[in-house]
Design brief:
By secondary structure, the chain is mainly beta. The chain has helices spanning about 5-10, 85-90, 100-105, and strands at about 10-20, 20-25, 30-35, 45, 50-55, 70, 95, 115, 120-125, 130-140, 150-160. The two termini are about 20 Å apart.
């Protein structure tokens, strides 16, 4: 007999698209992390006058994505949220991110369901009788510039509602 943990593992899958972009399936939920769909040779703008050149093609194009339930965005730099994602993703899609990124996405880019989480705050999605909780955790992938920066790590858990 299969345990609940065994059955849950069968409902998990991850597809690496490139850089920090992955397609996650957790039970009935489909999530996209840090969408970057730039093509090989294109530049991502990182802020503070810095840029990075994409070395490989993404494994999947934005137009080939399945229906998404949410995007999880660690921070708003061009190598984690590029101009292709900005143009191709549905403006009504929930985007779970930092408070700074949520304000910018809602205002400048018109993604009306961007949710900004401070460290240790959570956001819950509900679908088909299941719950998915995404929790913001502290994270930093480079030294912080003057005034700090808004990088996050994320944890997610899902369960079937009783």
């Amino acid at each position: 007999m299969k345990t609940e943990a065994d059955l849950a593992l069968r409902q998990l899958s991850m597809r690496f698209i490139g850089n920090a972009t992955t397609l996650l399936r957790c039970g009935p939920f489909t999530l996209l992390t840090d969408p970057n769909f730039l093509h090989r040779g294109q530049r991502a703008y990182l802020g503070f006058g810095l840029s990075s050149r994409r070395l490989t093609e993404p494994a999947l194009q934005a137009g080939d994505l399945p229906r998404l339930d949410a995007v999880v965005l660690s921070h708003l730099h061009g190598d984690h949220w590029d101009r292709i994602a900005r143009a191709k993703l549905d403006r009504g899609l929930p985007i779970v991110t930092t408070p700074h990124a949520a304000r910018r996405l809602q205002g400048l880019h018109r993604f009306r369901h961007a949710v900004g989480l401070r460290t240790w705050e959570s956001h819950t999605l509900v679908k088909d009788g299941s719950l998915l909780r995404i929790t913001s955790m502290p994270g930093r992938h480079a030294p912080a510039p003057p005034g700090g920066c808004c990088h996050r790590s994320w944890a997610a858990s899902w369960s079937s509602a009783p």
